[in-house]
Amino acid sequence: MRFDEAYSGNVFIGTNSDFPESRVVLYGMPMDWTVSYRPGSRFGPARIREVSIGLEEYSAYLDRELHEVKYFDAGDIPLPFGNPQRSLDIIEDFVTKLLAEDKFPLGMGGEHLVSWPVMKAMAAKYKDLAIIHMDAHTDLREHYEGEPLSHSTPIRKIAELIGPENVFSFGIRSGMKEEFEWAKNAGMHISKFEVLEPLKEILPKLAGRPVYVTIDIDVLDPAHAPGTGTVDAGGITSKELLASIHEIARSEINVVGADLVEVAPIYDQSEQTANTASKLIREMLLGFVK
């Protein structure tokens, strides 16, 4: 996939730059080959783009407009259906090339495993990388039913690569007992159930560091985001998630990339999940890119 090949269908609202002049590259990772429950997240990036037409380009939260950020929508990365390893290799190569061009990668999934090759590429460039992870699930398994390439494994993989003490998870309310025990013994930070208040405590400790932010839409309660593959009751509100994004935006950390994953439009006829995701992408664009 060439960088100058824009998405052949819809693009995210306000896309205002060609690749060479862009600061941010928005891209989709349409993969759901390893999900353990309900497939469909491969359609997430396209639908997020389509519903973005209903957004204003101005954020009342951040007092910024999309024209203030030069960004290019590169479309969805073409991935070979049913081939997880090859798909992950393609994603890693794509993001590595973006980073070589000093672009800010903003990805849309797709299942959460797609974040692994992105974080791996980020870690290769930023030696002091930290991860902020918002999710209903720990994603700390070594394998799922014997398969190491699973949407339940990406945080374990990045923790083992950069050190568990550099990974900070928030909103977690589901996982195996062994996952929580591993995190505790390894020195990894997990905030159960809540995001905003524990995030406020952690951000000053990450001041000045390069940070990658990965958000699984199922950190939201199913009442706010039913359109996802693995819904889990007891999540946060969309208001709290927006406030958490803004807290990161106003902090002293150096956000170097981000993604939003696990939107599965087929399970939400109201389209509130896709619309919420679209707004979250707008706020990440305006908040994370200074």
From TrEMBL:
Protein name: Agmatinase
Gene Ontology MF terms: agmatinase activity; metal ion binding
Alphabetically ordered keywords of this record: Hydrolase, Manganese, Metal-binding, Polyamine biosynthesis, Putrescine biosynthesis, Spermidine biosynthesis
EC number(s) stated in the UniProt entry for this protein: 3.5.3.11
Catalytic reaction annotation: agmatine + H2O = urea + putrescine
Cofactor: Mn(2+)
Top-rank taxon, per record: Bacteria
Lineage: Bacteria, Bacillati, Bacillota, Bacilli, Bacillales
Organism the protein comes from: Mesobacillus foraminis
Ligand binding (Mn(2+)): H112, D135, H137, D139, D216, D218
